[in-house]
Structure formats: C-alpha cells, structure tokens
Amino acid sequence: MIAFIIRRLLQSLLVMGTVAFIAFSLFNFVGDPVNNMVGQEATEAEREYIRQLLGLDQPFYIQFMRFVGNVLQGDFGQSYRLGQPVLNVLGDRVPATLELVFVAAVMALVIGVPMGVYTGLKRYAISSKLMLTISLIGVSLPTFVIGIMLILVFSVWLNWLPSFGRGQTVNVGWDSNLFSLEGWKSMIMPAITLCLFQLTLVMRLVRAEMLEVLRTDYVKFARARGLSNRAVHFGHALKNTLMPVITITGLQVGGLIAFAIITETVFQWPGMGLLFLQAIQFVDIPVMATYLLLVALVFVIINLIVDMTYYFVDPRLRTEGKGGGH
Amino acid sequence: MADPLLKVENLRIEFPTRRGTLVAVDDISLHINKGEVLGVVGESGAGKSLTGASIIGLLEPPGRIAAGQILLDGKRIDNLPYEKMRQIRGREIGAIFQDPLTSLNPLYSVGFQLIETIQTHLPMDKQQARQRAIDLLAEVGIPAPERRIDHYPHQFSGGMRQRVVIALALCANPKLIIADEPTTALDVSIQAQIIALLKRLCRDHGTAVMLVTHDMGVIAETADRVAVMYAGRIAEIGPVKEVIKDGKHPYTHGLMGSIPILGHDTEKLTQIEGAMPRLTDIPTGCAYNPRCPKVFDRCYRDRPDLLDAGTTRAACWLYDDDAKAAAAVTGETAHV
Ligand SMILES: Nc1ncnc2c1ncn2[C@@H]1O[C@H](COP(=O)(O)OP(=O)(O)OP(=O)(O)O)[C@@H](O)[C@H]1O
Ligand code: SF4
Ligand SMILES: [Mg+2]
To answer: Are strands B208-212 and B176-180 parallel, antiparallel or unpaired?
Structure first.
C-alpha cells in the first residue's frame, strides 16, 4: 500500500511537470504580455527592455525551466496584471473555487445517486420517466442559461438571494461561505448551476449500472436465497455499481473546476476561474501557469483518492497474489 | 401414498410479445415427493429453467404464469404476495443456478453471504450464524473452513465456489432444492464430485431435488424419477430405470440412443435428426411429429396428453388404444 502511494506520487510529479511544460509551449501563442503592460507610445527599446526583464526574449523551454526552478523554491512569480505575487493573488481565490466545487460535487452525489437508484429500481414508474425527461432538459440547457434564469427568479423577482459575489464570508483559516447562512445564500445558486450537469450524469450512470447489476447472476441468486429487497438492492446491487460511480465522480471534480469558469463568470464569483479568464486576456503568464499547475494538482490528488477507494471497495484488488486457489 | 412435497398442476408460462403470445411452457404437471430426486432433461429451450424459476417464484417479467398452480406441502405458492414468497425462498425451497462462478457476489466474503442468508431465515445471532456457516462449509468439503470463511469468492476455484453455492442453498435446510444445470459450467473432472456431493447432502438432510441437466449419465446415477421435456411439454415421465432402459416415447428413445458415461462426451445427447421447433412454429398435433420415426396421421391432427404407457406415462398416441383404432378408421376413409 505504501509502495503504491509512493509510486503514484512520483507519477503525479511527472504529470504536473508535463502539464506545466505543455502550458508554457502554448503561452507563446496567446499574445504578447508586453503590449498590455506598456502604453501605445512606448518605444521599441522600452519594450525590448521589459521583455528582457521578464525573460520573455528567451525560448519557451528556458522560460519553463526558470519557472520550475522558482516554483521548487516556493516562488510562483509576480502577476503582470496586478503587480503582486501570484500566491497572494490566488490565495483568496482558491478557497472560493474549491468550496464551490466541493458543494456542487456533494450535491451531485447526494441527490444523483438516490435518484439513479430509484429510477433503476422503479424502471417503469411514471415518476422515473419524469425524472429522466427533466434530467434530459437539465443536460441540454447551457450552464449560463440556467444561471441567468436562477438569478432572474430568485434575485430579481423574488429578491431572496444575492445575484452575484460571495457575500459575507467567515474566516476559518480561509474565507469561507460554509459557516454562515449569509454565506450559503450566496453559495446556493452558483452551486446548483454548477452541479446540475454533473447531477444528471451521476443519476444516469447509477441508473444504467443498477439495471446492469440487477441482471447479474449473483443478484438473482441473492433473491433465490430469500434475502430481503433491501439487502438485495442496497447490499448487493448498489455496492457493485460503486466502482464506476467513484471513477466518474473523480473525473467530474475535474469537470466541475473547468465548468466553474463559466459559473464564476455568470455569478461574478471571485474564484480561480474568473481570475484565469482575466489572466488570459492580459497574457498574465505566471498566473496562468500557476492556475494550471493547481488544477493538475487537484486532478492528481483526486485520482489518488479514487484509486485508494477502489482498493477498499474491491477485495479482488486487495488480495492480489495471496489468494488461496483451491 | 403420502402427499407429495411439490405439486405442479397444468402449469402454463407465457411471454406476451409484439407478435402475439409465446407459450413457453404448456400444461405441465409433475410432482416431487419428500426426499426424492426428480431429474429433468430435454434439449435447450424445452422450458426446463422456466419451470424451475416459476417454482421458486422468480420468473422474470414479461414471463408470467398464465394458468395452473404450484403447491408446496399442499399449499398454493404460485399466487403468494412477494414478501410471503420471499420467506419461502431459501427457507423452504433453495436454488442452485447454472454458473457458480457468477452466483457469488465478488465484493463480499463467502462468510458474509452465508451469515446473511442464515440470519435471514433462522433466529440466530451473529456468532451462532458464523458457527453454522463454518459447519456448512466443512460439510460441503471445503478444507480449513475457519480460515476460508473470511475469503472472497475470487480466492476459490470453480469447483470450490460451487460447493459454497451448495452450502448457501442449504443454509436454512430447505425441503426442496432446484438445481438448474449445477455442473454445466464446471470442469468435466469436477462435475462428478459435485453431483456426488449434492446427492449425499440431500440424502443426509432428506432434501428433495429437482435436478435439471443435459447429462443423461448424471440422471441415471442420481435421479429417482425423470421427466423428459420437449418444446414446453412433458414428453415422458416415470421411474428413472424404466425411462432410461425402456423409454416409451419415441423422443426418449432418441435421447437415450447414446447415454454418455458420467463426465464423458455429453455432446451426443442431441443426436436426433432435425431440431426442436421454435416456440413460434410448433406444429399442430404432436410437437415431435417432424422428427418422429413412428409418426402416423393422427399425430398431425391432435396433440397427445400424458397417457399410461405401462411403467411410465408418455405423451404419444402410440399408447392410446382407442386412437389406434381411430387411426385405422381414418386411414381407411382416406382411401375411399
Ligand atoms: N424473456 C423471454 N422472452 C421470450 N421467450 C423466452 C424468454 N425467456 C425464455 N424464453 C423462451 O422460453 C423457452 C424455454 O426457455 P428455458 O430457459 O426454460 O429453456 P431450458 O430448457 O432451460 O433450456 P437450456 O437447456 O438452454 O437452459 C425458450 O425457447 C426461450 O426461447
Ligand atoms: S404422437 Fe406420434 S409423432 Fe408424437 S411421438 Fe407419438 S408417434 Fe411420434
Ligand atoms: Mg436452462
């Protein structure tokens, strides 16, 4: 187990290095940051000076090596746009996005799994068909449309919820929305908007898996042994649907971070996604690079958690090699 | 004679489809006495598994029992509500299915699966149930059961897994076990062991068995009586010796043409000319008439029911004395 984790950590470093490298090779095509930093009337000499100062005259792999070298010393550079250390800029933003993504992921699971189980078990019920139809609409509406509709109804018409921003936060080591009613009021609409697609995905996946598992011999045999429906459905069937659900949940956290860019824009949520969009416009290379590294880190951590969960759910992975045979 | 343990009367199983209703099992009647082994043989698609599934109440929709009844100890069980029937499954009637490799849930230890079954049916606490599980594993011949009980299915070989499956079927000491081709999926060298085990256990516990198989050798060694099924009906039913040595129905003759020795060459079973008709085009009259070497004209008109044929009962007009006469008469009129 320990060896497994160490091996995975080493692989993770490789993944993150690769992500950073590819990112840097692409930054050259985004535009010239110097244009944004100096006025129209700056001379070519002034531009050249700044370029040299930032090391932008070097080929991208040299820039990359320098970035990696600095990162290893804990220095992520200065934002070109804001003139502050990247860590300070991102510092407030990371928890905002991670909280949003976390709440959305939990909602997708807590609502999606039971709905999937229900529609799988009650395949022919009207309520199941209704849920599936509604979920189809949920998938096909673009995120920003849902967000704007929510704002229209709950902020503009009913005036129940704030239409943008994080509102009041409570400092619990970081600024958090999770520990006050005001925080939740700001959080709820962006979280719903963000989770909707994922929720329908989880529901449909669990449903499909349930239908599959209910057809297996071991479920038939469990019924033939006279076990209660509860034991058959939740003990035997649901547990066997978990593996793919874990996999998809892991992947979808990545998807949520990506989708968060849109949601954050709609709700003016001060997270990393919004920052990243602004950074692209300004060709703010240190911010973009750090953002991508962070996202890669989250992916890597989640994959690790997914693999370890497999290990606990499936005995076939645990007992490899020491099986008794006959 | 005492009342039979299980009685199936005029059972009819239908599948509603877009192109009309398929009758997969048509008017089957049979009984099984306490502690008796009834073998059920017949070609693929004859309706053996469906009959078994309807007895334990696990016919899968859209399949349904359209007529007839099933009685256990004289009480109807085919129309019980789900929860009542659930309590009978495993407790009164156990089941063993075709494939032992997939009958066990891979995510739970065999001990867990045994204990949950025992506790479902018997008033035992965890400790007692575990002890019973270990005893059962020992009884089905699993070495070091105290250790093996905590192992997972993938840690057992195919033969060992089928032993676990048998232990699971025996958890609550049912009166009847439906064993649907319990050895088909196993290695030939293990099949005989498993059949011997099943036979011994059921004799020791006084458990009756409905043993579905393609293997006439297994039937010859294990069964007390045998039912031969053809195209959803019983072609012949009777004591195993008589049916095997002196089958009355022409189809039984065909089947017995080459009885393989247990564990050898089971292929030869279906070496009768032609194939069993599909459910959608069962011929009028006797369903066997396209393949029957003894066919005569009445066979094309009327469908035979089970008739007394000496030591067995056979669904064949050859054993209907009046019909013979009638056939002769129609034969004459045809010439005129
Ligand atoms: N869901 C279904 N829809 C329509 N017909 C079905 C369905 N299930 C089974 N049948 C039909 O019922 C008939 C009997 O099936 P059954 O499984 O009882 O056969 P069997 O005698 O057990 O054969 P085998 O030796 O292959 O196991 C088959 O001809 C099959 O085509
Ligand atoms: S009824 Fe006729 S066709 Fe059918 S088995 Fe008897 S002889 Fe053959
Ligand atoms: Mg079958």
So the answer is: parallel
